[in-house]
């Protein structure tokens, strides 16, 4: 029985059944199709500008001038995006259908000599549900409460019920990932053939067919290392405490003393080694622990063995995720949990975590549309395929075609209900409090910074950061400083947040504003550009007016460059943005977060900037003829007058009119926009946004009668007709719409509404993170942090000075009045209550430093708790992410958006947690080696690590 302080812990009496919590609406999670190689991951323009490098397939017109409802990722975009890792589901949803080519079909063009082209018909179709948030006064009330399922009584009373929205508050939409890798490509990747990388291409879990699992690169478990405790080691001496191998290898890992056959799960126990069966075994195995997947005696139980990498197994039942029971090990032999130990025979039929294994499926059927009997759930960011091959007629070859034209088409569409849904959504947005999108309206004027004064009276003075209620905001391009006669202060290493003693000095004159990185905190050596008042004032909003409406997610603005952000001494935020005037010229000036004329904060549910247009009345043939005329590609025999009339009619329509204004800097009203204009528009932020916000309806090329394509034959000329006839074979083979009609509620008619995938993501992506309750995950771990920090201390060996609940003296002076509402005195610091400390932690450290965005709360706890004790925690984690997980981060020591995203992208969060714990222990050990004065803190630091590992968040 577990005991605490010598007293048994008796089981509590069963609690009375609690009422189930009211059903809660949950926002949809979103993900961009590919991670960028570089750039702001919160900015849709990162992806829109990448699409400008595509060889074709622009939205909403293809290179042939016809309707095109998707976007293309190919070799041109590959330099900007991490396409080799696979395409990711853009939102939570469920796979409803797919097709996998056995090998790419081959077209034969009847030229002399014949030419050949490969293309992929493979696709994955995902259904998503976008649900309106309930009205604020209705959320959780009986009017929106879910009806309990028939089996609800069998579940725990505290299980939350699913939120059941009214039918007209749900938009079912679909994302399509077309022209995917064929089965041969997967096989080549597995064997190392072709150009595919075996480490990045894996079977997809929703494929039908015989399934087994391989121990691959995701499996990072290791056998425990045999270690003998040194009987001569004196644990009371500093040398004993500083023996890192003992701390990390003997004390913190290894076999448990109470069993030779199991591996303890309690890292705080001292573990002893078990001698191997023979000296020969020890020499061969003891020093070389193998890597693979742990095998446990039950789900998440005691480790009884390990199947090394390269092994393969099948499991009992149709399990795809989580823990599963081994049915058969088909390749490889399990080894003992401890290197050099005797294998446990139970491991052959033990339990493994499938999330650490690669699913290997012999997919059946191939070359056919598969409609899943039970849709397969996927999360935003899950890999759902890889780029396939697509060669157009100009890329056809007289030789056997090679795989050298990678392509993936991503498309988003919805049925007829979308217009009503958007209308209701816009009405609901008026009642919602969360408005994370900054809307810059047409006609707005931005602010230019005031000119500084050259101040030559500051030489020799320290430009110390101003303190007090209206002191320096602590961030932004400009800093508020107090010129001070101040002696240089020695640097210190603190144990808590910003631990250092308050500086003293003699203020000289009034506070001033200076450029932060150039002058703040430094001694002026000559004239300094200064401002008596904050450089940005709404009274200075003048100059050219904004000509294009623009929308900026707040997260995108906050993740921008430091030189593009500013905060005044009232805490008001400003951002430098780029806009366009009526003539399409660039304006780069500042916008204020509040009270800025012709700007407002808006909800994503208002769909700001989006516009719908129905094009089904314009025949596809007319779109093609219009493009031939506008692109001046008429051939002999074409009736120019007829083509001109068709072009004029199409250009006068609403669709081309909207595109002209969006893509051609308002245009001249002639409607002569062509696909090349769409490519150019993608490189200009305000133009790209306008294009990506057009929602239009047309008949999908994946369905419909082939008769509309046969009408093109007369336009092809005698030489082109055979090629077009061959091309129609491809069009027919690519179609899948009629085969997917069996999917419940799938649109029967291929006349559907298309949305730009990046435009849609850019609108809602930030909302999925901005709308989260940052306090909720913090409250789960705050008690642990406070327990670690303890109460009031003022030890002579603690360089941080007076500290209570981890809040150091300097932090208390800075935030006591604003965050807690009390004077920043030492007496009040001694009286600091836990709730007050939590308020400072949440507002000043947890939320602004990104920990709210962690998807795994234990990883967040481990990282945050480390950051409290050490300022170098984030840098060490970044190094780990780069060296082991190849995250390609800038090692700047900040827990920014890119670092948080890299952490969340690690599939095995448990392995990451253990990795962070390991480097954290090593960091503390090395710290005490460098500074023996810290030896008294080492035991407590290591206990914190163990506590973070064991706690159930």
Automatic annotation (TrEMBL):
InterPro entries: Lysozyme-like_dom_sf (IPR023346), Peptidoglycan-bd_3 (IPR018537), TtsA-like_GH18_dom (IPR008565). Residues 877-945 form the Peptidoglycan binding domain. Residues 140-159 have a biased composition (Low complexity). Residues 1-10 have a biased composition (Basic residues). Residues 1-25, 134-163, 487-510 are annotated as: Disordered. Residues 784-871 form the TtsA-like Glycoside hydrolase family domain. Pfam families: Glyco_hydro_108 (PF05838), PG_binding_3 (PF09374). This is Predicted Peptidoglycan domain-containing protein. It comes from Paraburkholderia diazotrophica.
